[in-house]
Design a protein that fits this description.
27% helix, 25% strand, globular, six-stranded antiparallel sheet, homotetramer, alpha/beta
């Protein structure tokens, strides 16, 4: 493939990759291992928001009852939720609030979801539910101040269109929950932004239309729309793991376009923000696909296009402290995280790290690449970034060759290249080589981290007639990042290269 | 080349690579940058002793004079030397003391050496010199306790056989200095170990014989012998740098053998420890050779043989905080350090890091390799280490192929390989690609550190008839480290490899 | 009171205060807040062992079942327990193992204890229980090596003499559990030490005698004896808290003496180690007593005497990450910890910190004090430590005056004093002054830490006729630590004191 | 004394205490100990600018000469100055540039100042001096960007009105230096701010008037005025130390008022910023006064008034890494720093720490106190800060009693008080008690840090008729900080105080 890039051809590209990331249930944010993983992610990638389930689950423990003088009373315990949000803020993250699931003492039924038994039934008393929402949001304003809390979007519940997450997937009951919750939030402060319906891709068109009709007709507050999307076909469950075929690259963008169009078809909601509050390749936390280079290359493509329709898309999830299907037996277990327990980056970690470096000022976009430029902070030079990817799900492992011609001012350029592919940065394979140890000792952990680092190289290129010519070759399931920087002449302190072994 | 390794063939190999390392003058140990470099070296390599010049130089400031009632009086200021040694001890290092140079107020002349102007003349008053030695060593015992100070060897002066380091290279005067110093040390505590003559390779045979005759005839205390060695031919000085040809690989081992034999020829000194208190390829701190992969491969060979004759060999120096020829203009300046200012590891850093991992229990040694084994700390498994190198000074850049056959118990083995060569880990070249910036900004520094990391790979090997067969290919000036670990069967939690892209 | 201390009068005193400390259930060791609290405790106090409940509880998740081909199978998941013990070891702690409680899938009944619902029924299948113990201990040896695991004592269950902790407090059933467990441990490695019966002070004499008869008659392995003790009278529960009167100071020592005598009455067990695997003033995690200065002074007395009969006494618990009665609403909640959530030291923290500094070489012991000496590490000087306490439970708040005369060599002494009492180091009161905020912001937390620091003072004393005279005055519920160090003459660099305001 | 404070009575007070701080010569910023001291100062106090001597001194090494083809050439070495400024910026500090002293190779004479021998003669070649200034400032813009460097004020030389700092204190020669330097700076970028004449209080009125006449008449760039001030009378030098009497409290404010009036008398310069680029009590780095509580209380007064006339006042110096009179023999040596080597805060450290907390919104100011208020960041509550001081230089040590009545809304208030006086926070005295050890071991250092901490207490006060009444009692040479915060009602989770020993 051949790409001629003119600087006037500004490419369409919105880089919202860092706007939000997913997490296992809120209570896990109290874990030491969770904190270490999130610290690394924030130091090296730097997301803005984080979203997960279980705010009102009993292990966070906000909703408490006790008996006094024979009467059942309600009180609120904010000890843990304060620890959790304090920690997020200290890491430069804000919460993207999900109002759910149901405290047992407020539930109308006993249906639960997940190993950790989140209750997914409607409240037994909607007034008490509203009180709970009001008390919690009011507490946050008291603790963090109005300005801070106004920047936290609040989403009502999770995937109510699935029976597993909402008793009977009862649409009317969800609309009731939504209305009560949204009005409760606005009662605390009408400027707080609230949204839904947090659906996944099952009957999603019907749900989305109905939801927007409901809110628009009833004047129910709605500040943004949320949905989820995953890109795999049905799973084979073989002993402990789920194996699935990836959907085609266009699957998710197409689905999102449909949602976008539905939203825009409501005059009141035209152009309203759509947040993808969960997405990934597979929806199973036991699919080894998540740990592969293929996953990294596939996600790279998605990150290059999802900003076309959405205001954020929250990768599900940042790390592997996660218990929906129980406790993982091994560091590589097909879980969702960008990194494993022990903080070994998976290949997809680098997809995010690469997209975190390139900004949003694109000069070229293609099916396999994005090129952006940024201005130097201290002089007038331009820096180019190229990210390219080559997802290959199958046996055909031919290389992808890309030839870039980028308009650039004449002179010398320094190119810093980082490559992640199945040969040079494939910690899953290295762990298997190691014998798949279920718990790593210090040395094994250290070695696997070494195996999870991109291969680096540098080179010099001359631009003579205004075009920087660069050839990139990608193996199957490779992603790469090239940074191209103009070299400024330096004081004369250079070595005589031919007298120094290996210096050129 | 082909190596059949039988476990019964225990190879001769003493790995004293970590016993000692060199440093720029003592005062530099007060620097923040110095501390950071040394911290990294100690965290990742872990030397035992450190030796440098300038203990009694005026910038450390121990020897002070003042006037009171018209009389000139002496007092001692241990503020800085205490800071320095406290810092060494906190980093797990002990000082290998060098008694020198001369405080200006105690000097008999004005000759100095280096940009920092170390006075290299004899004391104007040998009694005051002895007092200074006694006061300093006594202070150390008071501060650190006898047990600690008894483990610090004390060497008298530096390279007195060179005029530049000792006025007129006056041998008799040095012997006098040696005797006074050694007796002063022993007066504080006769168990403290003292040695010399700290000569370099100029008239070294004559000096060494004469010195040993002097000490043996006059019953002057001597607990160990010290000397230096460098391996380059005369320099071309072209603007700011020195270019030299490397001596042959056998140059240093041959020279040390001669010294060893001289020592052993004195019945009283047969088998006495010989410490190489300085060595390197070039003796110039402006020779870019130090920053190359060639240097790393050449030093690897030396580390495999120097333990045959010596008790320690102190690489001159651990880091690039160094001022003998003034302040370096650039991060790569041909200085001696294992790492640059900013803590970018040079290739030779990895030579030391590799030798720090392999222990001393060799099963095979050759001109281009060493193989050792260690026992697992928690079970009976053996771990093999292979370090190999291929120094090539010249245009002929053919690869070196090594074929190892190591006796091993049958089963599966995991191999973790690290490679440093001119293509994959050559930060000098990357810095030149970058335009040779004299001061690095944060991003440049971070990228050069990424460029200074070994390439990593892993593999699985089966041993079926008691022989582990391993082929290693080394480019010119490569060094590598292979760690070979038996894989123990793990619980059945494995993936189905053919269902997971890139997992094998 | 007046104490003349002769150096020849060596006092009886075994300082085992640091041998062990208690913790909330094992799973809590995965928490970030727990790690931070324990890190601080280990940095500043430094316990050797840690013991808590819940090793086999489902949240640690070791015992797992799954169905394959229609058959229910057992597998073990060591992910979390490895994280927990790795963390302990990294903090310099070893686990004092408690084998319990029962995984739900292996339980014979549904009775649970605590908010976190530990199952306290016997195993439905003793063979599977033995398999679980064997698999776990074997895994530890594989992971940490035999030498390490041999240093971990293993105790069977917790307080089986209480119905709440063991169904029906069924003694014969416990003896069965003990025997199966002890034999399982010994099957892995006969050198691992195992003990029980982990009883508290209810029918303890009967239980202890019966247990020792059972083990001795049936030749059941027993390497040490364990029990618990608490020192408060029945509780008034007023809304959320328990209020209790403290028992007399002699209550616990008397009770332990009885147990000691019972053990020693069995010839086979005479002198056998007795470990107090839990103790504190109150057994309620909602008694504000734990947060007071009274608690600190009372515990100080206990630490001065418990070593007379016991090999360890594990303060229940090191920190306030604890959920037996649910999640605390406030930082001061009467919980057991030496420090609060947020790591504010409670007064009792300082009791331990003081005992951690004094060693075990006593020269005087009284009802309100202990004096020890230690030898300087670098010279021959002696350092004296005085810890004194004045627990007062009631309205009479008269001061305690102590006059010490300690034999010491003549000269000048420097005294460094630290004082903790209700006026100078009472963070509970400061928190109440602050308005009892349920969650602290950063500034509040920082200020409360400042309020939780001992008052410091220094002085100089001269010893002229061989006696160091020292007067100590303690307010109600004070504890203090005095360190007394000989001043050695220093070089003449002193100020003229009368020319410097406030210098004497 | 009695202070009724009405909220409408806004007091005059400009708190510029944190705008700038002094430092030992630039080269010392390369030291590890320096970095640690400055890190602590910045973490806990947080200055904005830092100013010190020696930018162009040979140990920073910017100006370099070498011979090539028989010609002497100039080159610039920015290695060390980049390290220094990088470190400042990383600590949140900007440099307040002082252009001086003279590189030896550019000097016209040999006169030097200080132990470190700063050359204080005019340049031998003013054009080369201008080149040096231009090259250095241009390099900074290239490295840090224009925006950053525009915020760095540039002052020309140091105290040219003293012969010791400027050969012959030659005023005309200084004006020449000033003009050449100022024009050189402006040539790089006319927006960079430049100032002088950096005089101390010797013939300062004459110098200041002449300087302003010179610049105004000749249209020489001048963006701000700088001077120094110290407040002690002539010194007695007794052995190693200087003893001096403090000037009266009004000495410095009066002197500054005179300068202010001179500046304002020039129409072109009316209201121009005056920066006190050095001030302290004594100008001697060997006056123990700096280490006393008297110094802290005296400086507190100065900080309350200096903002009346000046835009910044740079305490000379932040720390004790300092070599003007050589290397200190002891941790307390009368040096200028806010903290000692080893980072023990001196009492004056707390003066700055207290002023760093109070903001600038004063409600009352008196000779011995300042009261400010700040608004809570998360609600509408007001927080009051009181800082009070009681400097007493002499034998009369009567207490100072202050009675504050502050208008406040009714309710409960929490008061957090910190006190520093000769009894509770006097590390100099504690060090003398210890025997004045010249180098501290770890325990001594830790104990002295404990001795250098304010005494803390808390209390509750009720405001009932709109007045908060507070009595403050200060011993001689005390300073205190009170923070007064409204208590908001909290959820009912309180203890029954009478059941909890010591809780009220």
């Amino acid at each position: 493939m051949d790409f001629k890039v003119k600087r006037t051809d500004k490419a369409v590209f919105s880089n919202y990759a860092l706007n939000c990331v997913g997490t296992g249930r809120m209570h896990l944010a109290l874990r030491h291992e969770y904190h270490k993983q999130l610290q690394k992610v924030q130091d090296e990638i730097g997301f803005k928001y984080i979203r997960g389930h279980g705010l009102f689950h009993d292990d966070v423990g906000i909703y408490q009852t006790y008996e006094e003088d024979g009467v059942q009373k309600v009180e609120y315990n904010f000890t843990y939720v304060d620890m959790i949000i304090d920690d997020y803020l200290s890491l430069g993250l804000k919460p993207f609030i999900e109002l759910g699931f149901m405290p047992k003492a407020l539930a109308s039924g006993e249906q639960t979801v997940f190993y950790w038994e989140g209750n997914v039934t409607p409240p037994s008393d909607y007034e008490k539910w509203a009180d709970l929402v009001i008390a919690t949001v009011s507490h946050w304003i008291e603790r963090y101040g109005e300005e801070e809390v106004l920047s936290w979007p609040m989403e009502v519940w999770n995937e109510p269109n699935l029976e597993v997450f909402w008793e009977n997937a009862d649409m009317d009951e969800y609309f009731k929950l939504y209305e009560v919750s949204a009005r409760a939030v606005k009662k605390v402060n009408p400027k707080i932004r609230v949204g839904g319906p947090s659906i996944c891709g099952v009957e999603d068109e019907h749900w989305l239309k109905s939801f927007l009709e409901f809110t628009s007709k009833n004047d129910v507050p709605l500040d943004f729309v949320t949905r989820h999307c995953y890109a795999t076909e049905p799973a084979d469950y073989i002993p402990h793991y789920a194996y699935q075929k990836l959907s085609s690259l266009s699957y998710i963008p197409d689905e999102l376009r449909v949602s976008r169009d539905i939203i825009d078809s409501f005059p009141a909601y035209r152009g309203m923000e759509m947040h993808i509050t969960e997405f990934n390749t597979s929806y199973s936390p036991r699919n080894p696909l998540h740990d592969t280079n293929l996953n990294a290359a596939y996600i790279a493509y998605l990150l290059s296009v999802m900003g076309d329709t959405c205001a954020s898309y929250s990768y599900w999830t940042f790390g592997d402290v996660f218990e929906e299907q129980g406790i993982a037996f091994t560091p590589f277990s097909g879980c969702f995280g960008l990194l494993t327990n022990g903080s070994i980056p998976k290949p997809t970690y680098w997809t995010y790290e690469f997209f975190s470096k390139i900004g949003t000022d694109a000069v070229s976009r293609g099916k396999s690449h994005i090129i952006t430029k940024e201005k130097s902070k201290i002089n007038d030079d331009e820096i180019f970034h190229i990210v390219a990817w080559n997802p290959v799900d199958g046996e055909d492992k031919t290389c992808l060759k890309l030839n870039f011609s980028i308009e650039a001012t004449d002179g010398e350029y320094y190119i810093f290249s980082r490559l992640v592919d199945e040969d040079v940065c494939n910690p899953l394979k290295s762990w298997i080589d190691m014998g798949s140890p279920p718990t790593l000792n210090k040395k094994q952990l250290s070695q696997l981290k070494d195996c999870a680092t991109p291969a680096i190289s540098t080179q010099r290129l001359s631009v003579e007639a205004g075009l920087l010519e660069l050839d990139v070759k990608l193996n199957a399931n490779a992603i790469c990042h090239y940074e191209v920087v103009k070299v400024n002449p330096q004081v004369d302190r250079g070595f005589i290269a031919e007298r120094v072994q290996g210096s050129r």
